[in-house]
Structure formats: structure tokens, C-alpha cells
Automatic annotation (TrEMBL):
Name of the coding gene: tyrB_1
The organism's taxonomic lineage, starting at the top: Bacteria, Pseudomonadati, Pseudomonadota, Betaproteobacteria, Burkholderiales
Organism in which the protein naturally occurs: Paraburkholderia haematera
UniProt-recorded name of the protein: Tyrosine aminotransferase
Cofactor(s) this protein cannot do without: pyridoxal 5'-phosphate
Membrane-spanning residues: none
Annotated keywords: Aminotransferase, Pyridoxal phosphate, Transferase
Transferase keyword on record: yes
Length: 399
């Protein structure tokens, strides 16, 4: 019966991470998947999360189903974090927010909603984008196109081309934007550039779909949400998928949220109902544990302060590692290839390494970066950064 089923070629990110786990070499370095490791190379349990979890275990109780939209305290806290506690749209009750299975679940529920109510609309993602964007949106039946984004020559942004392409899209097209810490390139829009994009989306009557998986890893929790706040204030039809996988180091708990900014409270109630219907059709309702942790940390002043401070430390450590590898490559690679380590932001840098060089890095040096050349700089630490720099220098020199 199943003879005709072809083998799954694997996922470019998750499958490589699995290969890494199986690699027996002691000097191996995992710079493939977007996971933050601490300076000891360990996946951190954030102190605020540990404290919230200890308290929760003491008060463990029955576990019924959550509502389709998720835990109310979590939804409210997530909305405040994404849009700002004093957001006008939030105060007016115009934002429909629901708990989702990570950022991926938010993208999928949002995609199903759009496919159902905007069946003629197509989506445009950056070139390049997180590989799974295409997979999720095509899986929901949407046609996926790209707009110009990354400039290979400079390691920067093709801003004029991006703006021009967005300015030509048919009305009601969907534009996927990365709020901050662009995956895979690490190249973000400046606040001035966002201020130019927003009116174009508005004028062309487009739908902005913002993916915010790295809030807090760029400049700060507030600054990283600049585009979300500006789009909401400008009244651009806006959908936001946010993830707590990285900024709470809660990858396996699958904590995310989906928000749709509407023009009235009444409209938001109708939209929320249809998002719930998409949840019911996918997985019925979300899980309890991680949501309780996130909600309790965000709503308790002491836990929240601890979480924010630890997140800032993580962000600073990434910056320090960017500096270390930038120094380590001095004199070994050209300046265009080197400058990006400090010019780009967040967990990722597009190294500009060729596929053959990436393969040599893995085969000969046990250093894992994605085939596309994407490096997760959050996997670097004081013990491996020099080794990674010298390995890159060696493959670039072709020795
Ligand atoms: N959006 C972006 C931009 C993103 O990088 C990820 C994960 C997600 C959404 C998914 O978030 P989650 O809450 O885990 O569902 N990216 C890393 C892991 C992965 O590919 O699944 C990565 O790029 O390595």
C-alpha cells in the first residue's frame, strides 16, 4: 500500500541538527539550528523560568483542556509584550490574540485563516527567508513569491529594490516581514527604513504578516518590536506571529502567539472566532505547561525583571561572540566577508561561504553551519570561537 511513498529528503535545519547529535567527534561545534547556547555550550534554563516552574510544581493541579484560544493570562501578557503595554489598539480591544504551538503554529493558523478569507491573495517572503516559511505557507495552499532582500555583494540590504517590489504588489497581497534579527541573513531594516515601508504597505492596501521569533535578541524588547508598533499605529492590516522559544529558552514547550489587529473590537471578536476555528481544525487546543510558565514570568514583577536582565545578558554575549569571530578572521578573509559578523544582528549571520566550503567545514573541522552558509552565532563561545575562525580561514584559503 505504501510502496509509492518517497523518502523524506529531510529538513535543511532540523535534519542537520540531528546529524550533529550523531557526530562522534569531540571538537564538534553546532552553529546550525537557531538555538541559544550559553558560554559553557549548554542550553540555558532561565532563572525566572526555573523559579516559575518550581512554584508551579508545588501547586500542580488537574489539567483540563485549555480553551481553543489558549490561556487568558498568557494571551494578554503576550499581546502586551508584542504591541506594548500602552498600545492604543490593545486598549481599544482591537487585537485578537491567541496562544499557539510556538511561532510555527502561529504562522500555520495565520496562513489557514488567510487562505480561507483571502483565497485570491498570494504571499511574498524575503529572498532569502527562513526555509520553513515557504513550507508552511505552501502547506496552507498559498502561492509563495519572493521580494528582493539580501545583497550578496555587500552582505547588506537591497532596500530600494525591496521597496520597489512591494510597491508593485496587487492589492490584498500578503507581505511576510521579519520584525528583527532576520533569519537567515541577520540583516534588518533600520527604523528610518521601516518608516518608509509602512506607508507603501498602507497605500498598496497590503496585508503585513510579521514574524517575530527573536524579540529581545536585537536591540531590546521594545526596539525589536518597532515595526509591529508602527504598522499597528498606521492602521495597516496586520498579523503578527511571535515565539517564546528563543527568548524564554523554552523550545520544546511550543509557546507562541498569533495576533490580528482589527479596526474595531467587534471585528476582533469575529476574527478571533475564525482563528479558533482554524485551531480546532488543526490541533483543537494548545498545551498548558509552557503557557503557565510564560504567563507567570511576564505577569510577576520580580520574575519579569530577572527574565529581562537574563535576556539582555544573552543578547550581549552574542554581540561579544560576533566581535571575537570578527577579530579572529582579520587578515584571513576579505573585509566584505568579515564585516558582516559585526554589522548583522541577532542569532544569525550569513557567512557568504559556498556550499563546498560549508561541506569542508563539516567534514574536516566538525563545524556545522547550514548549507546556505547561515551560521547561528549563538552557538559560539569562548572555547570554540577561535577554532571556528581558524576553520573558516582554512576553508576560505582552500588549504
Ligand atoms: N520564525 C522564524 C523566523 C524562526 O527562525 C523560527 C525558528 C520560527 C519562526 C519557529 O519558531 P518556533 O517557536 O520554534 O515554532 N527557527 C529555528 C528553528 C527551526 O528551524 O525550527 C531556526 O531557524 O534554526
Amino acid at each position: 500500500m505504501f510502496d509509492h511513498i518517497p523518502a523524506y529528503p529531510g529538513d535543511p535545519i532540523l535534519s542537520l541538527n540531528e546529524d550533529f547529535q550523531l557526530d562522534p567527534r569531540p571538537n564538534k561545534v553546532n552553529l546550525s539550528i537557531g538555538i541559544y547556547f550559553d558560554d559553557a555550550g549548554k542550553l540555558p534554563v532561565m532563572d525566572a523560568v526555573r523559579r516559575a516552574e518550581t512554584a508551579l510544581l508545588g501547586a500542580i493541579g488537574p489539567r483540563s483542556y485549555l480553551p481553543m484560544a489558549g490561556l487568558p493570562l498568557y494571551r494578554d501578557a503576550a499581546q502586551a509584550l508584542v504591541f506594548g503595554a500602552d498600545s492604543e489598539a490593545r486598549a481599544a480591544g482591537r487585537i485578537a490574540t491567541l496562544q499557539t504551538l510556538g511561532g510555527s503554529g502561529a504562522l500555520k493558523v495565520g496562513a489557514d485563516f488567510l487562505k480561507r478569507y483571502f483565497p485570491a491573495s498570494q504571499i511574498w517572503i524575503s529572498d532569502p527567508s527562513w526555509e520553513n516559511h515557504r513550507v508552511v505557507f505552501e502547506g496552507a495552499g498559498l502561492t509563495v513569491n519572493t521580494y528582493p532582500y539580501y545583497d550578496e555583494q555587500t552582505g547588506g540590504l537591497r532596500f530600494a529594490d525591496m521597496l520597489d517590489a512591494i510597491g508593485r504588489l496587487p492589492e490584498q497581497s500578503i507581505v511576510l516581514l521579519h520584525a528583527c534579527c532576520h533569519n537567515p541573513t541577520g540583516v534588518d531594516l533600520s527604523p528610518a527604513q521601516w518608516a518608509e515601508v509602512v506607508p507603501v504597505l498602507q497605500r498598496r492596501k497590503l496585508i503585513a504578516f510579521v514574524d517575530m521569533a527573536y524579540q529581545g535578541f536585537g536591540a531590546s524588547l521594545e526596539e525589536d518590536a518597532t515595526c509591529v508598533r508602527e504598522l499597528a499605529d498606521a492602521g495597516v492590516p496586520l498579523i503578527v506571529a511571535n515565539s517564546f522559544s528563543k527568548n524564554f529558552s523554552l523550545y520544546g514547550e511550543r509557546c507562541g502567539a498569533l495576533s490580528v489587529v482589527c479596526k474595531s473590537k467587534e471585528e476582533a471578536a469575529r476574527v478571533l472566532g475564525q482563528l479558533m476555528s482554524a485551531v480546532r481544525a488543526n490541533y483543537s487546543n494548545p498545551p498548558t505547561h509552557g503557557a503557565r510558565l510564560v504567563a507567570n514570568v511576564l505577569s510577576d514583577a520580580s520574575l519579569r525583571a530577572s527574565w529581562e536582565a537574563e535576556l539582555a545578558t544573552m543578547r550581549e554575549r552574542i554581540l561579544a561572540m560576533r566581535g571575537t569571530i570578527h577579530e579572529g578572521l582579520a587578515g584571513h578573509v576579505d573585509e566584505v566577508m568579515r564585516a558582516r559578523y559585526v554589522a548583522q544582528r541577532g542569532m544569525f549571520t550569513y557567512t557568504g561561504l559556498s556550499e563546498a566550503q560549508v561541506e569542508r567545514l563539516r567534514n574536516e573541522y566538525a563545524v556545522y553551519v547550514l548549507r546556505s552558509g547561515r551560521m547561528c552565532v549563538a552557538g559560539l563561545n569562548a572555547r570554540n570561537a577561535d577554532y571556528v575562525a581558524s576553520s573558516i580561514a582554512a576553508v576560505v584559503a582552500g588549504v
